[in-house]
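Notes to self, Solute carrier family 12 member 4:
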Amino acid sequence: MPHFTVVPVQDNSPSNYDSLEGINWVDYRDTGQGGYPGHGDTVSSDGHGNHKEDSPFLSTSDSASKRSDYYDKNLALFEEELDIRPKVSSLLSRLVSYTNVTQGAKEHEEAESADASRRQVPKVTKCYFHYNQDICNNVVLKDFSLFYFTMLTAISMSAIATNGVVPAGGAYFMISRSLGPEFGGAVGLCFYLGTTFAAAMYILGAIEIFLKYLIPQAAIFHPADIHAGSGAMLNNMRVYGTICLSLMAVVVFVGVKYVNKLASLFLACVIISIVSIYAGAVKSIFHPPEFPICMLGNRTLARDLFDVCGKTVVVGNDTVPSQLWKNFCSSENSSSAHCDEYFLHNNVTEIQGIPGLASGIIKENLWGDYMEKGQILEKASLPSVDVHGSMETFGFYVSADIATSFTLLVGIFFPSATGIMAGSNRSGDLRDAQKSIPIGTILAITTTSLVYFSSVVLFGACIEGVVLRDKFGDAVNKNLVVGTLSWPSPWVIVIGSFFSTVGAGLQSLTGAPRLLQAIAKDNIIPFLRVFGHGKANGEPTWALLLTGLIAELGILIASLDMVAPILSMFFLMCYLFVNLACAVQTLLRTPNWRPRFRYYHWALSFLGMSMCLALMFISSWYYAIVAMGIAGMIYKYIEYQGAEKEWGDGIRGLSLSAARYSLLRLEAGPPHTKNWRPQLLVLLKLDEDLHVKYPRMLTFASQLKAGKGLTIVGSVIQGNFLECYGETQASEQAIKNMMEIERVKGFCQVVVASKVREGIAHLIQSCGLGGMKHNTVVMGWPYGWRQSEDPRAWKTFINTVRCTTAAHLALMVPKNVSFYPSNHERFSDGYIDVWWIVHDGGMLMLLPFLLKQHKVWRKCKMRIFTVAQMDDNSIQMKKDLATFLYQLRLEAEVEVVEMHDSDISAYTYERTLMMEQRSQMLKQMRLSIAERDREAQLVKDRHSLIRMGSLYSDEEEETIEVLPEKNQMTWTSEKMEAERRNRNNAPENFRELISIKPDQSNVRRMHTAVKLNEVIVNRSHDARLVLLNMPGPPRNQEGDENYMEFLEVLTEGLERVLLVRGGGREVITIYS
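result:
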């Protein structure tokens, strides 16, 4: 609750003027048209389809009938505007009958509800998969989903690739030139990491084939028992993987031409392997291969731990326990009961692991069977007695080493679809990238997808489900299942798979360094600059070295299941942004978007982008978050530390489109009172060196705005635009540099005009765009106007005040701005004093609140002083003002100062007399100077053009060029005598100054200024900042110079003063 006190200012003289209680607000924005739309708290109609806000504080009724003939002597400075800026006492008196439920509020809420019901809430389209067919652990579903999104990505990539030349960099180049260096660098680096980890994954696959199927004897580490086999295998893969990586790096370092030659050999091996699989599947119809697996009940047994699939064997004529019996029983005596319960109650059977294409096994493999870690592989169609077996025999069964799910299997299977960027990564080596990338990529995806689909169907139709789920081949004695299915020999598949993975690893090691080199050459990430250098032929030597080190990290991880999700995230992120780049460019319809590839659409790109995003979280949500976090950090680093690049990217175009849309929305009407904030136009003065003369103006603006809203910094250069263009550019740069120093976020505009005041008028009228226009003008005080005989400074100042009033803009004039605090200072205590004399929309209450949001003013307290006249009810003012501030949610101390009407003091009379004498003296001096100059000019240039101006014009006034024939003057003796008499009468004119009697209206205004200044200095001499209503200039322009004197008297003795004039509308409201 605000604190308030009443401080009387004692005066014994009675009042000579009546108080104007109940003066009503007349909105001068639209004289004759009623109130201005958009002011206040409730909404009604003005009959023209516009909304008009009513307010309990600013009444729109006509006040002409209630106007008195006399005004308060203590408010004479504000008397010409009391009809539109009422006294505070008049405002507060209306609060007594004001209720919280205003007329029209209910209708307004109903109207807003109706509008909201007509708006359609955007629906989030959910991408889902139809589980119509699920073959071999849903691999067909994975194939279809991967085919769709890889094809959509390829379409988007083809459109971007054919929209101009694609040099080295591939996907990075396309994304960076379409979405900007920040997105391009972040996604490009992630794609580089993904490609590098892909090389590690392919090498690990090659080593696994080498150690398991080619030369198992080459293993260095051997398991100590059956449970330690995986650890020994991983160690072997680390050693051999490092050796293989080193050899591949040497091949790539020697030259890419050798990689291209080996690629043909590797491709031939892959094609032969695929053909052999189809041949073996066809052969299995007539003659399935012999490929037995041993089952205990319906459980699959690890075949490498026994020799005969049976509980007993016949040796000679005797039946003896088999090795399998010994594994499950503690005694070799077959009659003993010390055996595993499950082993005793279930039979041992041997089934064919590859029954063939005509066996109908596809019916069992049609439905998925996801397994938990440690779950034993079972064939549901075999009979089994469900009894609990011993945990000691668990190692004799084939079990799942990890928990499987659709999301995990998608993440593991996804790297098979990551090759779609292989061509684009080597775009710099292609003869015609625009032609090769679309055709090659789409044909490759189509071919591989057909191979994947048909292979999955063939595997599901030929091979038992337990064999397909046996990850390490334990049930088939480590034999390669696909090799057994193929024809003519399993070695075709083994050798083909080995060379396929080696070739893929070489391709990744070739493309990744070139991608890093392209990023480094763009110089968007400073610390990567060294990797842009290479050999004389352009080979990325340093980038290859870094790629090898990162790939070694992936090899040290050794587990393919751990590498695959990391790989998937980086690739999916790259594909996502390729689709986004195509969609943005298509929707923006930029003139430069003219791809030769025509078979694209923004909806397809968005669908591909959505599928990529969904797959990221489906595969591994935590890896997705980590990948996005890495990309986000790279993005921010490039944004703050990277070099600025202007590539005409789509994000800039998107920003322009969004800005245009927002500006058009803002054109719908003025902002509501709740959304009003000062949008500043700061008028700066430049010195002779085109530097900002008062930088603290910008400091004050930054403290008031705190980075919010609109700030336009404007200045005027006097002269001709054609001649001053260079000065304009230098001035703008100087202002922008100062704005950066003072942390002012906004725009700069410098205009050239023949007259400064016309330039300022142009800024006030034309700054901003659409709904983003300034509503408040900040300008400096004309220091030294008293000491100068030239009236141009204060005339420009007063003209600007009149312009802001005519434009219905608020005005702030910080006086003694050099004493204002910098952004590095902190006020630990003190007050911000508000002297609320007349109500002009609530600016005086809002500005301290905004200033206190800044760290400089945060600890200052707010005090509000208001003035009560003789016939004002101070008690009622206290209650109303306390209620008003409480409803405004403002914390402030309130002090009501009673100013009794008094006779005009001798000091006031003398001060007024001195003011008018000074004004008259300056006029006489300017007259004498003008006459003397005119006489000299006439004598010198009698037959030339005469430039004549007003006696009271400043240097900004336009000179009047008059034709010679209309201004030819003959210098006669009579005119010479007249000029001499004028000079002789000059002393008499100065003597008349002594007998001047001051004008009574000036005396009353001076009385107001003196009285208010005494009260303000007495109460606020120690305040950090004083905010004060700024009186308006006189309607009669002949009193402009006296107006400046009144303002000086009003603010004398105060260190920091902010003079404030409202813009004619309410800017603060009691509603939430």
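- Confidence is low (pLDDT under 50) at residues 1-71, 98-141, 942-969.
- The longest helix spans residues 906-940.
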